[in-house]
């Protein structure tokens, strides 16, 4: 670590490279800190040093060490730093909702391809309302939307299609028809942002259904095949189109 | 090992020997104690915790009504507290009315379980309050011993 560290706050919004060290604001003497805590109350979270070290960052002796090249982002509420990097290959992470393709049925367990280094396993009891007698009707080649229960580098990833309270909340088998395609992970996160222009523009076009998996897979279904293909092309191209180009394309389409 | 018929003394000796052996072989870390610093940094590999991402299943213009309902439900999970507060305000009967109702209710149901004599007394009391007259002369009827 020959590079000198820089303050984390100064680098927010700028490109960082692996090996950069981010220095965090060091809290003052503990006694002063306690007094400040009593007065500030809830707002003292970040100043007390409770920090969330997101993807692309690791803890090191001096502060945070950058492990991925990208733009450094920061969120004030709860003090989170992370690196917004771009990649196409997905690494399973616990809690992520992904689209998986069933590749094999091995007794009580389905094997799903989620785009990672290993296939994920999904138990047939992990569906809503599934019992030993009442098995879900899943065949090889079906699409499943679920979340990771276990996902670390030492174990085979496991998926489930129910949440902690036992309800499916939208997860499970994805219906018939539709089109599945793969995009980069950064685009998925852009599309899932709270106010996404692309999604809002597309929703004005025609009725359709969309499932976004954090592993880079998108499934689209519209009324006709042509509409579906148009949506696929727009979503794939929106990674490199500017907002104006997109609006031009949509204007042409809605004019037709 | 447990041997039958071992005296308590020999047992103690054996235990002491075992302890000595164990304490010699006890491994301990020769490293200096790591300072408990920066225990407030939490490492997180998921983007969901950092960014506020929406739910992955979406439907537009009524293509799949169930998913549209789900979208509203999932994306407003953060605003659940507001919904709960609203429910409290929209009660059909206000708290004050309930209190008044219960006040009278307890009395009326209680009368049902009074004995006949007490009911008579209650009636007299009511009349007294209404008429505001002198207390009635008829006292509570008591058991009259039969004369021989």
Automatic annotation (TrEMBL), chain A:
- The species this protein was found in: Piaya cayana
Q: Which gene encodes it?
A: Exosc3
Which Gene3D superfamilies does this one have?
2.40.50.100, K Homology domain, type 1, Nucleic acid-binding proteins
Q: Name one GO molecular function term.
A: RNA binding
Q: Does the keyword Lipid metabolism apply?
A: no
Higher taxonomy:
Eukaryota, Metazoa, Chordata, Craniata, Vertebrata
Q: Where does the Exosome complex component RRP40 N-terminal domain lie?
A: 15-86
**Residue ranges of the K Homology domain?**
178-226
Pfam families associated with the record: KH_6 (PF15985), RRP40_N_mamm (PF21261), RRP40_S1 (PF21262)
Its GO CC terms? cytoplasmic exosome (RNase complex); nuclear exosome (RNase complex); nucleolus
What is the name of this protein?
A: Exosome complex component RRP40
Question: Which keywords fit this entry according to its UniProt record?
Answer: Cytoplasm, Exosome, Nucleus, RNA-binding, rRNA processing
Give the protein family. Belongs to the RRP40 family.
Q: Mind telling me which InterPro entries this protein's record contains?
A: Exosome_RNA_bind1/RRP40/RRP4, KH_dom_type_1, KH_dom_type_1_sf, NA-bd_OB-fold, RRP40_KH-I, RRP40_N, Rrp40_S1
Automatic annotation (TrEMBL), chain B:
Tell me the InterPro entries matching this sequence. MPP6 (IPR019324)
Q: Which GO terms describe its biological process?
A: maturation of 5.8S rRNA
What is the top-level taxon of the source organism?
A: Eukaryota
Q: Where is the composition biased (Basic residues)?
A: 138-148
Pfam families hit by this protein: MPP6
Region annotated Disordered, chain positions? 120-148
**PANTHER family from the UniProt entry:** M-PHASE PHOSPHOPROTEIN 6
- In Swiss-Prot or TrEMBL terms, this protein is called MPH6 phase
Organism expressing this protein natively: Piaya cayana (Common squirrel cuckoo)
Name of the coding gene: Mphosph6
